[in-house]
Amino acid sequence: MKKTHIFGIIVIAIAVMVIISSTGDAGTYMNFEEALAIHENGNGKKVHVVGQLKKVNGQIIGLDESPDKRSFYFTMIDKNNTEQRVFHPNPIPSDLLRSEEVVIVGYYKKNTFIAKEILLKCPSKYNEDKIKV
C-alpha cells in the first residue's frame, strides 16, 4: 500500500471514532426520579432533564444568585411535577427568566442536581396573533 492510502485510512478511522464518541454523550430526556435512580445505581453519566422554572402567580421563585454572580441555584419542576433544587456553576443565562422550557444537562451530587449545561426554549418573537400592516 502507498503511504497516501494508509494516511487516508487513518483519517477515516479517526473521523468514525469522533462520530461514535460524540453520539455516546447524547441522551434522552428524563425526569428527576429517573436521573436520581441512575445516580443511585452508581452511574455518574450526564443526563438530560426537561422542565420549567418554578413560578407562583407568574413570578419565578427559588432563584438565588451567589454574591460573586459566578454561580446560582434555582428550583425546577419536571414533566412529572417533581420539584428539584438545581445548581449551575456559571452566571445566569440572559434569557433564563423568559424561557418557556428548560433542559438541564448534568448529574446528581447528594441532594442537588448539578447542571453543567442549560438549554433554553424561549418564546419566539415572531409569533404574533395579528399581522401588523
Describe the structure.
The protein has 133 residues and is of the alpha+beta class. The chain has a single domain, classed as OB fold (Dihydrolipoamide Acetyltransferase, E2P). Helix content is 23%, strand content 35%. The chain is built from two helices and nine strands, in the order αβαββββββββ. The protein has helices at residues 3-24, 32-40, and strands at 29-30, 47-53, 55-56, 59-60, 64-65, 72-78, 83-88, 101-109, 112-121. The strands form two sheets. The chain has a five-stranded mixed β-barrel. Strands 3-4 form a two-stranded antiparallel ribbon. Strand 5 (64-65) and strand 6 (72-78) form a beta hairpin. The longest helix has 22 residues, at 3-24. The termini are far apart. The mean pLDDT is 84.
Name the CATH homologous superfamily.
Answer: Nucleic acid-binding proteins
Spatial extent as radius of gyration: 20 Å
Low-confidence stretches: none
> Tell me, what's the shape?
elongated
CATH fold type = OB fold (Dihydrolipoamide Acetyltransferase, E2P)
Number of E-state strands: 9
**The first-level CATH class name:** Mainly Beta
The main β sheet shows up as: 5 strands, mixed, barrel
DSSP strand (E) fraction?
35-45%
Helix coverage percent: 10-25%
CATH architecture: Beta Barrel
Q: Strands across the major sheet, in which order? A: 2-6-7-9-8
Rounded mean pLDDT score: 84
